Amino acid sequence: MKSKIIGTGSYLPEQIRTNYDLEQMVDTTHDWIVARTGIEERRIAADDECTSSMATIAAQRALDMAGVAAEDVDLIVMGTITGDYPWPATACIVQANLGAKNAYAYDVSAACSGFLYGLSSANDFLMSGRGKRALVIGAETLSRSIDWTDRNTCVLFGDGAGAVLLEAQEGDSGILSCHLHSDGHYLELLYQPGFGAKNPASIEGFNQKLGFLKMQGNEVFKVAVRSLTEVSKEALAANNYTSADVAQFIPHQANLRILEATTKRLGLTKEQSFVNVNKYGNTSGATIPIAIDEAYHQGLLKEGDLILSAAFGGGFTWASTLIRW
Ligand code: COA
């Protein structure tokens, strides 16, 4: 018995913000952004869109692809750090939007690793026999947590949502294993200082911009490459495979240089590694399900293929999975 992906879906807002648009907003250039990150443009949610609205569309598309009704879903897990409200879980809002009245729903807070943490949680749920189908969603509206006057961070991120529908099925295809790690010592290299219980909302905090994402980019970069490489090797070793067996590597899309360095360290070719960070930037928990959906529709994921995925994000958290498509 395995958790098999039987549906994928994604949603990207229509509004495109190019590097040339950013040149008008902060002291940066298109060439600098492309050279340091590989990002050319990103999507920005419209005023009437938010994390739940984008997640609902992505999830409905995954259900439609599988031909499964929302009432037949038993669990909805959503990786997000930009939920509609501090609480309750945005997954519950998506549940209501979909009409998935027989599911229970919760969010996972693991920043850019949120989707793979959610996938692991849903896989455990299905393999324990507690249900038959689970929706796993990654969705973010990071444009609302970014300081658009800070060139160090605002060029990197974007909005979007992706989802997969898992079904417990007999056979060899599906999730082979999931691997999760975290290390809270790195908290302040990548986090949002306000407005939780530690630094609650206040005029002073607002003036100090505590509600925006803070990051020490070059420190994050080094740990990200090391962790993504190690956790990817861990997934391969756990299943007695090597890089040569991988049909597609679908890593978290943070920065082209991180992707290229990781791909090289793993001994993977460019053809084995999926990239779309140039179009969407870093959509945190949403990058991997969006990439899975795009790779599938581009014909890159075929029955029996071995798919390796890995993520790294705030916490720090990092994770991987190996999937037989
Ligand atoms: N445009 C122009 N110059 C910029 C800039 C921008 N958008 N952002 C930063 N700079 C400047 C810096 O101010 C610095 O100038 P200084 O030398 O005068 O102080 C210079 O560029 C170099 O900064 P540095 O941070 O060393 O650059 P870098 O090569 O590390 O690239 C990042 C910066 C953010 C692109 C890179 O560190 C990175 O991608 N890190 C990982 C971030 C990430 O992916 N986080 C999420 C993980 S899930």
Automatic annotation (TrEMBL):
UniProt name for this protein: Beta-ketoacyl-[acyl-carrier-protein] synthase III
Region (ACP-binding): 253-257
NCBIfam families xrefs: fabH, PRK09352.1
Keywords in alphabetical order: Acyltransferase, Cytoplasm, Fatty acid biosynthesis, Fatty acid metabolism, Lipid biosynthesis, Lipid metabolism, Multifunctional enzyme, Transferase
Residues annotated as the enzyme's active site: C112, H252, N282
Domain notes: The last Arg residue of the ACP-binding site is essential for the weak association between ACP/AcpP and FabH.
Catalytic activity as recorded in UniProt: malonyl-[ACP] + acetyl-CoA + H(+) = 3-oxobutanoyl-[ACP] + CO2 + CoA
Task performed by this protein: Catalyzes the condensation reaction of fatty acid synthesis by the addition to an acyl acceptor of two carbons from malonyl-ACP. Catalyzes the first condensation reaction which initiates fatty acid synthesis and may therefore play a role in governing the total rate of fatty acid production. Possesses both acetoacetyl-ACP synthase and acetyl transacylase activities. Its substrate specificity determines the biosynthesis of branched-chain and/or straight-chain of fatty acids.
Enzyme Commission number(s) from the entry: 2.3.1.180
Pfam family, one: ACP_syn_III_C
Keyword Acyltransferase: yes
Gene, per the UniProt record: fabH
